[in-house]
């Protein structure tokens, strides 16, 4: 399994495993508590997560991720998305979840959805991300 540190993709680091194979790069180990619940692999999973949490639960994840986003994006930009090492892939999945579910807080909503809007459970996902592993 590839491991990455601040020095780049050819360096080694301590193992920060989460539930076996899910790990984060050493410099982001402080976000490890969020991996099991928020490092979601597909757009569908991220969408369903948004509609299964309260605004208060979302706030905890949001407040942990937002201050780190510049550093996270700089780190992830070392690779093309299809060449991410495993630990950077986990960080990428946390970042994708953040990007796809942050809008209720960014826009000052009082809930994660609008009452009487198109029913979220009626959405169908037919993207490549739905086929990912």
Structural class: mainly alpha
Oligomer: single chain
Strand runs, count: 2
Outline: globular
Short synopsis of the structure:
This protein has 133 residues and is mostly helical.
What does this structure look like?
It is a single chain. By secondary structure, the protein is mainly alpha-helical. The chain has one domain. It has helices spanning 35-38, 43-50, 55-65, 69-76, 86-101, 103-106, 128-131; strands spanning 17-18, 22-23. A two-stranded antiparallel ribbon has the order 1-2. Helix 2 crosses helix 5 (86-101). 41% of the residues lie in helices and 3% in strands.
List keywords for this structure.
single chain, 133 residues, two-stranded antiparallel sheet, globular, disordered N terminus
Layout of helices and strands:
Elements: E1 17-18, E2 22-23, H1 35-38, H2 43-50, H3 55-65, H4 69-76, H5 86-101, H6 103-106, H7 128-131
Antiparallel strand pairs: 1-2
Helix pairs in contact: 2-5, 4-5
């Amino acid at each position: 399994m590839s491991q990455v540190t601040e020095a780049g993709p050819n360096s080694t680091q301590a193992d920060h495993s989460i539930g076996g194979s899910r790990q984060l790069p050493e410099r982001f180990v402080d976000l490890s508590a969020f991996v099991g619940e928020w490092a979601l692999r597909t757009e569908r999973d991220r969408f369903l997560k948004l509609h299964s949490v309260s605004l208060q639960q979302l706030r905890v994840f949001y407040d942990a991720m937002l201050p780190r986003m510049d550093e996270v994006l700089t780190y992830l930009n070392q690779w093309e998305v299809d060449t991410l090492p495993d630990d950077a892939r986990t960080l990428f999945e946390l970042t994708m979840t953040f990007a796809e579910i942050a809008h209720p807080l960014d826009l000052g909503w009082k809930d994660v959805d609008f009452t009487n809007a198109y029913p979220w459970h009626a959405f169908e996902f037919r993207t490549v991300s739905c086929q990912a592993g």
